[in-house]
Amino acid sequence: MPVQGLWQWITEHGVVVGTYALLVVDIVLRLAALVVVPRNRRPGSALAWLLAIMVLPIVGFPLYLMLGKAQLPRARREKQQQVNRLMRVRAQGIPDSELDEDSPSWLQSAVRLNRELGAFPLVGNNDVELEIDYETSLARMAADIRTAREDVHVLFYTIGLDEVTADFFGALGEVADRGVTVRVLYDHWGSVSHRREYKAMRRFLDAHGIAHFPMMPMRPFRDGAFQRPDLRNHRKLLVIDGARGWMGSQNLIASHYDKLANIRRGLHWQETMARLRGPIVSELNLLFGIDWYFESDEVLEDEELVRQAPDTSGTYECQLVPSGPGFVLENNLLLFNQLFYSARHRICAVSPYFVPDESMLAALTTAAKRGVEVELFVSEIGDQFLVFHAQRSYYTALLEAGVRIHLYRAPTILHAKHVTIDDSVSVIGSSNMDIRSFLLDMESSMMVGGSDFMERMREVEDVYRSRSRELTLEEWKKRPAPMMLLDNLCRLASSVV
């Protein structure tokens, strides 16, 4: 049949041809999904993706191609491998410390695990202070910045210039104007989503000649291949002269995130930040240097990053644990599970977004059933609809296992992220206990050994407990059936990673 005749036949029978073409595409996509989706993927995640594709292949399969692989494009993976090798070489210049004699034997195993996963050693002679007041922590960080003589390194998921952060930026401008080197990194999506404050921040940094780069920029094909847009750098850290550092859960923006909806609801965020002195600051600085190279291609010299700590009067052993899609394994998840299974008496976990995978859920419920006192602090209300309802779907299993769940009272969002195990070890940082933090986000956590620091953590937990109410199994079983259905549907959707 001539081409012209064939085209005429197709146009005359367009509905039939289109129907059969869609049917063929539908079948091909379903069969392709059965081959492609389960490859190297958790069974729960694979089933969720397969369900989405089988229900609506034309939409589900393209979404899988965009969001189904929790890895960087090849060019960035190769760069990350170079970064990881560089990190291991540079971390060799930081000496290992010995744990106290009264430390439990399992803690040494955790130290070895962390060193293998993230390359950073355990270092001693550190001092760690905790700050839980939002604006006080910003003021103290600004005060530390004003003492800078050599350099200031800033890395936060969300950075915006507003009335609350104005003094922080004022401090950056002051030291930059007198010749201190200031470098700033911010997650692209985490900051640009606050458009007015983001633009004000960039104008300010440019006006003072401060070098700055967006992390994981929202340019999908920048590295020659499609990059999943929700791979983010979620770390929060500040380093001044390689001598003083800050890390934790807080972003550089007002506690209501400058959103009208939050202001109308009276929402604000509760955080926990740690101020550090001692050799651990070099580990923070090294992590910043790695992310700086990742985004700017500038290699900061060893002497700029790993320095002799001017103050070694502290008594805490600390170890930094980086994690994210650039690592082969899920470093933060492995650390948490190791600690949960090692606990003998008590686990206290604070996480705003609690959507565990099967292994973490098993670790916590097993701990509770073998007699460990397990407490979980979460918010009474949520700022992210899907995650909030997904995490609620786990409450029944946790409560039935004996886990005590404390709901931080509205209208505050408890955004702090930390864990304490027995009287032995604490973990504080940027990592949530959810699948996103395990697979998709670059995070930083710090493990701190010693009962002295544990006393400070217990004081913070007591404050949060006084601001919370305990959820009981009886109350939870009385929730409306439609709400239970919604929670379970969101749990299924949260597995699609």
TrEMBL record:
Residue runs in coiled coils: none
Source organism: Brachybacterium rhamnosum
Superkingdom of origin organism: Bacteria
Name used for this protein in its record: Cardiolipin synthase
PANTHER family from the UniProt entry: CARDIOLIPIN SYNTHASE, PHOSPHOLIPASE D
Matching Pfam families: PLDc_2 (PF13091), PLDc_N (PF13396)
Annotated TM spans: 20-37, 46-67
Chain ranges of the PLD phosphodiesterase domain: 229-256, 410-437
Compartments (UniProt record): Cell membrane
CDD domains hit by this protein: PLDc_EcCLS_like_2
